[in-house]
Amino acid sequence: MELAETRVSEHLHSPGSVFSPDDQASKVLGYLKDTGRYEAAASGGGRTGIVTVRDLLGVDHPERTKVESIWEQVGTVRDDAAVIDVVENLIDNGVRALPVVDRKEVTGIISQVDLMGALAGLNELKSVAAKEIMVTPVTTLNMEDGIAQARRLMLDRGISNVPVLSEYRLRGIVTAEIIVHTFIAPASKTKTGDRVGEKVSKLPGQVSGIMDKQPLKVGPEANALNVTREMTRLNKGAALMVDDEERVQGIITPRELLRLIYDLRNEEELPVYIVGITDEDFFESAVAEGKVRRVVVRSMRMQPKITEVRVNIKKQRTQGERMRYDITARVLGPEVSFNATNEGWGLMETFDGLLTALDNKLRRAKVEPEKKPRHGRRRPNPNLNP
C-alpha cells in the first residue's frame, strides 16, 4: 500500500483559526459550527493541541471553560512525516487528529477523515470485506431513550456514533456532533441577552427527535472500498452494517479503515502458511493469507507474542460437484498457542467460517499480566542473627 509511505503534506488541511489555551470553549464551538469542521488547533506557551467536537460534548458551561482544560495534547507531526507513522500515533493514542507544526507554528491539521479520503482512491481495498474490519457488538439506543442518556453513553464509552433502534431495527443514528450543535449555543450565534455558550440544561427530549434519519447502511457483501467511498461522499462519521431485516451487525468508523494502514507493519512481519491444497483449487491464496493476517494482527495488541500462523486444509468428501472441507488454524508464539477449526461445504465459505471462529477465539483470550517484583519492606528472618 503506497499510501503508507506518502508524506503528510499530501493529505493535511489548513488549520484555519488557531486558538489560544486561554480562549473560551464557546469560541472554538462557534468556529467549528461555522466551518463544518470537527476539530481545531490550539497553541500557546510552548504547548500545542487539538480540540474536537467530542471534547466539547462533556462541557457544561463552555462560556466559562478554557480550551486548555479540554484539549488533547498528544504531540505534533511535521509535514514530511510518513503517513504510516501518523496513523500509528492516531490509533495508539486514540485521537482523531494531530496538529502539523513547522518551526513551532501550526501549519496544518492531519485527521482520520483526511486519510480516509486518501484511502478512497485505493482499488486494492476491494479485497477487504467490510465485515472483517467492523466493530461488533454495537452499542445502541432505542427511539424513546433520552438525549442526556446518549450523551452520557458517549462520554462513558469514548464513542461518537450510536445507532438508534426500534424493535431491534435500525431507524437512525445520533452523534456527538448532533448533540453539541443542537444544545450548545456558540459565541458567534448568541443574541442580545443570551448567555454566551450557555448549555441547555438536562438535554431534554428523546434521541428520536434529533437523530440522523438517513444513516449510512451497508450490507454483509460490502467491501472496504465501498464503505470508504460512501463515507467520504456523504460526509458520514460511521457506516452501519445491517442484515436483510435492518438489524445492526457492526459499525465502521474512520478508525477501523485506518487500521488497514496501521496493520501493515505487523502484516509484513507475520508469516502465514497455508498447506494442504493446490493452487488450482485455491487460486486466491494471496487473498486468503491477507484475510488471516488481518484477523490475527487485530489481536496482536492483546497478544503481541504471536509469531506465525499455520492453516491446514483437508478435503473430506464430495457430494455431486461440491466438496466438504475441514480447515484448522494454529496461531503460535513462544508462549502462546491458539487453535480454531471449521468444517463445511465449499472452500471459501468454510475458510470464512474459520476466520470467524479464530477471531472469536483471539478476542476472548486474555493476556496474563506480568508479575512485577514487590517493593515493600522486607520482613526480617527470625532465624538469622542480627
Question: Concise description?
Answer:
By secondary structure, the chain is of the alpha/beta class. It contains 12 helices and 15 strands.
Q: Strand tally, please?
A: 15
CATH class of the largest domain reads Alpha Beta
What is the CATH-assigned architecture of the largest domain? Roll
Order of helices and strands: EHEEHHEEHHEHEEHEHEEHHEHEEEH
- Secondary-structure class: alpha/beta
Keywords:
single chain; Double Stranded RNA Binding Domain; 15 strands; 3-stranded mixed beta sheet; 3 domains; disordered C terminus; 30% helix
How would you describe the overall organization of this protein?
By secondary structure, this protein is α/β, with parallel strands linked by helices. The chain folds into 3 domains: 2-111, CBS-domain, CATH 3.10.580; 124-255, CBS-domain; 263-364, Double Stranded RNA Binding Domain, CATH 3.30.160.100. It is built from 12 helices and 15 strands. It has helices spanning 25-35, 53-57, 83-92, 112-119, 130-133, 147-157, 176-183, 224-234, 254-262, 264-269, 285-299, 347-364, and strands at 18-19, 39-44, 47-52, 97-102, 105-111, 141-142, 161-166, 169-175, 216-218, 239-242, 248-252, 272-275, 308-319, 322-332, 337-345. The chain has a 4-stranded mixed beta sheet. The protein has a 3-stranded mixed beta sheet with strand order 1-2-3. The radius of gyration is 25 Å and the shape is globular. The N and C termini lie far apart (68 Å). Residues 190-201 and 368-386 have low confidence and may be disordered.
